[in-house]
Automatic annotation (TrEMBL):
Residues 434-705 form the Xaa-Pro dipeptidyl-peptidase C-terminal domain. This is Serine esterase. Pfam families: Peptidase_S15 (PF02129), PepX_C (PF08530). It is an enzyme of class 3 (hydrolase). InterPro entries: AB_hydrolase_fold (IPR029058), CocE/Ser_esterase (IPR005674), Galactose-bd-like_sf (IPR008979), Xaa-Pro-like_dom (IPR000383), Xaa-Pro_dipept_C (IPR013736), Xaa-Pro_dipeptidyl-ppase/CocE (IPR050585). Gene3D superfamilies: alpha/beta hydrolase, Galactose-binding domain-like. Residues 1-22 form the signal peptide. SMART domains: PepX_C.
Amino acid sequence: MKNKLKHIMAIVLLILILTVTACSGKNNTNKKVSEPFEYAGFSSPEYKDYEKKSEYVEMTDGTKLAADIYIPADGPDKQKFPVIFQYTPYGRSFIMPDIKWYEKPFIKNAVGTWGPIVDRANSFGTVYGSTKEIVNLFLSHGYAYVVVDMRGSGASYGTKVDFSPKLAEDGYELVDWIEEQTWSDGNVGMLGGSYLGYSQIITAGQAPKALKAIFPEVVPMDGFTGEIRPGGIFLWAYSQLDMQKYLEHNYHLPDEGYYPNAPVVDEDGDGELVDEIPLDLNGNGTFIDDYNYPADANDPPQYEDGKEREHLYYLGVHEHLENTPYSELGPNTAFIDDDWEYTDGNKKHTVTAYNVGPASALAAVMESGIPIYNHGGWMDPFIRGTTELYSTLKDTNPSKMVIDAGYHEGTSPYWEYFGEDEEKVLSKYGIEMLRFFDRYLKGIQNGIDTEPPIYIYNMNGDGWRSENEWPLARQQLKTYYFSKDGELDTGSASPGKDLYQVDFKHDARWGESYQTSRWQMMSPDEMPVRTEMDKKSLTYTTLPLTQDTEVTGHPIVDFWASSTASNGDFFIYLEDVDPNGEAVLVTEGLLRAGFNELHDNNTMILGGEKGIDVKPELPWHGYENKQYNKDVFANGKIVQLTVDLMPTSWVFKEGHSIRVSIAGADWPTFEILPELSPTNNPNDPNNIVPVITIHRDKEHPSNVVLPIIPR
């Protein structure tokens, strides 16, 4: 009897425990939490499905733009929703022709869908703000989602001049169009990275009434030094990429990862879109060069099913042949004030890099007061721009900034190096976007606007932490002088000079699969270890540190140089050297010596005529034609060169050393100075190979100033 009673009591106790646990779990579910990457209790996933449709949106000039529209379904009975809008030149959705039944399992495993349509809601790789997890997160929380191909791209009509003002005008019209749709509640937010970050800023600069918040990621403030000529040096490798051509001409090259953009209209009404793509008669991957239609009415596109069509897809893509790509603009833009001439319809336009970068829209963006959440990565080439956008706009626009350890695509070998789960880190950005748009599109008071505005990843140290300002108020600027025997010394400059013969074969790429660097905008597959590269460079290294040393902010290198050549390029690296001598890249900067003079950084924005105070106060070299001295080193002149390195947040551990490494080339990522190598070939026997002298004495105290954060 006692045993039976004990058994009954045990069962009752178990039921009580389970009941309490269930109640506790229920209470935890309802608990409100809103902090970086954590969000619960303020909104909930009420919709289980979505409806998708595609259509053309006609601009006032008659150009039809392709749009995918996703509407929440299977949830509360609502007719109108706030809208997340992406405006892209990289394709709103893709289609995979000729999928065999036995290939489908492999495609499902690779891209997450059985095909043939690969879109924002079923699978979209790691494109910022475009993974199916993020899109479905918004749809489930009651947001409509709209993605539109820019003119001259995807399945849209028209021609595109990269970064032209017309793209901003289209952005304005698209937001107005979204506002008027029956499924829109009149509140629109934009998100996305790189070109999609740029498209947000220029659209916000048009001040459409319905645009309530933007979330730009990995975007520069100044387009000239961001993508064309960082430090005034032509980014040669980027101009060689065929990505834009393959996307705009709708190539089908599956082995290289390219698929045609999805057609908008099923012209033959058979429920399939694959057969709306004309046949590629010559088998080169694109149909766009197989027909002379519409110039020759007797040479219309041909289709697999042999049916007649209006050729809606073909006619749109055919207009892309008149695009003016970056690969044509970049090499012909030597200075920030060089004229760009292009034709829009029958009207000719002349602009400069001042008129086409994100900075050109900042005055209007500041006037609009639109909330902005800036996202950058410490290894992204545009990270200076991320900090400039935040710091310059924070007093006029509700502003936030988050910076992680990512490269341009978000992925990074640093995540594993720091013991982080990369996939887990990147997946949390959907939560952060939801918090932001819940606040500004739905009006939910979740506190995102009252918490510290900055959230950064302190590399090799604290990990994630909040900050209240940028640069950090508690930073202590510490000078490390270039010294004898390659030392970096906190004492004073030791009198002397160091000679370095430039090695044009210095190549700052790394990794087996990508062979890339931050400037090529792809994440490498292994850590950037510069130990061997330093052998082709001039280095200055501290003694082993006696305590952990945090550097968070903008390192500035200030040095004096002369050369046997009249001009030269300088690539500077800040490195962490471990006790075994392995040197890991922390950050970097570069400058063409002919741009040695410093100018007011406010002139970044339309030459300073807008009167905007650009922050932080960082070195700016003007980059105008009249500010360039191609004979800067002539007659043995000693020249002061000031280079800001990309901002960073890194802890150098006790026992490690800090190193500054200087090289005179980074080929083939950057061109070799044409005066030294007209063929841009490091092996050309006719190259002029200069010898650089770094001067270090009382009059020439060459140094690096590091923003040290007390720990």
